[in-house]
Amino acid sequence: MSFLADKSHTQLKADINTGRKMRNLIFRFGIIFLLVVVPTLIQSDTKISSAPNFVAKDLSGAKVELKEVLKKGPVLISFWATWCKPCIKELGELQKVYKKYREKGFEILAVDVDGPRSISKVRSMVKGLGWDFPVLWDESKDIYRNYQVLGIPHTVLINTSGEIVYTHTTYRPGDEEIIKRKIEELLNKPVQSAEEKQGEKSEK
Amino acid sequence: MRSKIFPRLPELPISSLSSFLTPLIFFIFFFLFFALYAPLAQDFKFSASNQLEYYFNSGNNKDIFHDWFDFIGKYDIYQAGLRYEAHQPDDFGNTFQEFSYRYFQVTTKSFQIVAGNYYALFGRGLILRSYENRDLRLDNNLDGIKGNLNSGRFDLTVLAGSPRNGYRRVNDPLQGADGKMVVSKWLTLGGSFVRTDIANFGFVRLFGGNASFVFPHLDLYAEYARKDNPSGENVEKDGEGVYLTSSFYQTGFGLTLEYKDYRRFDFTNGTLVYNNPPSLTKEHHYTLLNRNAYILNLYDEKGIQAQAVLTPQDKLSLLANYSYTTDHQNRMIFSEIYGEAEYDYKNLATLKGGFSYMKNKQEVGLPYFLAPVFDFTYYLAEQNSIAFSLEHQWTSKYDGNLTYYDQIISLGFAHSPNISLTLTDERTTEWKTRAWSGKKNWLILSLDLALGEKHNLTMSVGSRRAGKVCSGGICTDRPALDGGEIKLLSRF
Q: Please, which residues have CB within 8 angstroms of residue B135's CB and are 6 or more apart in sequence?
């Protein structure tokens, strides 16, 4: 009899634990569901946000300011590191895109987020792979944080008004075709520069 | 050691509903803030991101939950930022939640002042490196004040603050300064100094200088640093570190040579490490090669590394890397020879093959490893591709008395720009060498989805082996997975 009582007590405890775990699991998945669905619902792809300006040094130590580069044409920022396999693959493809559009004012800024341990290998690697675009070192990862980057490779396409028109994280073969189309759109449909917009505002 | 718990929100039991309500209220607050305030304030710029990781182990019914929410608001020259961090629990069973990073910053062309939390790097990290690496679960940000002045020729950073160690704030403040002067187009000189007063130990000071030369096709960098510290239990007096590097490059070819010498150079406070100089070992992106990576030993090591990159033609690239580390008695601790070749076949397929021969005497049994690696990607159409990857590592320990292999094979399909599906199998024969009751092979299926431009969702089901994850000579143990995982990266 006592054996049965013990068994039912153990079973009861197990049931309570299972119930708690289930509740816990439901809450967790509820939160995760909210975090997936809410951002998707308030999907802000259509909303244009402005690109944070920055000044960084290229591999020869010269200062590069985004605002200045944007005066010449649209800019693609690519966050990468020497240890990131898809980043190197993507930049190899972007080099072909760069060759095609650089004459029209298009620029790539490859922002390297390597730590101090790998930075000395970057220049020889970049030259060895035959990349022509400027490579900047994000020493304390300030640019990385200001662009809210959460993983690399991460690409950001900016028009001459300083507005972010396209962002993408990770690289899958074929992504460069989408970037190519976006660049063509920007080059064929010039937008007002930030100064022109400011001038228009003050006239009003 | 004097240290105190950094002010934080109360820790709540994992099963408690309120432990989820706190971050939920926080998220709702920010969503409302974005929705209501942003359209009214044209000049106020804001951005936010959220990184969520959830692991559920069906075997032991345990789960792991990590979340980092970052918010940045900017108005003219002013910027403020906030990070809410929750681990309920983390990889090791600890629970933690708090606003772990908040700052106010003023930036003009010639100066910047940050009050609150910040990161800093002096030189190449010999003297100070405060940084965050979420893969390593590492964040040693400083809490205090940092100022930077720069003109065309001069750059000076001064800082004071308390570093973070794990989930605590160390109460031994650190002060430091770092300056650079551009002497000519070819030469930049720099110097750094930091000091901290460690309770029950005394003052530790580090100071050093560096020189950087940039010539056409050739870069040189040299840094020397010295550490002054009192002697203590198991701590010898003073230490020093040297780091030299040179890079030679021209289109299609690049060569980097590096040298390190660190002697009693570990700058620590309990488990907190303030400096992180270059480790001079290859940073691998292959799981098996990374699992046996070298762990930096600043107390006693010296070594060299050479890396060459060559692109003999458009479609072919070659990489060779050699690294060798010894202690000051010239006993070899770590060495690796690594080579890889990548070939792009008529834009239809990419083939990549590599080989590593590694010796790591830091590990039990003084093992050496032979590891061929192979990647193959075939482009089916403009947007579709399939990928095959193989990592095979043969291990020999105790002078060849114990040998086994580990192998990872993965097969994936990708549809640009939104979907990737990957099946990964890992197996080992290590179980044959000793009593082994655990798993012998692990299989995991991962689906990676881009939800629009701003959200990336990864869902995985199956099992993954526990192991070391390393970056730059710093490693952390990652627990095994036997169940499912969800990772969501969002930017707003």
A: B469, B471
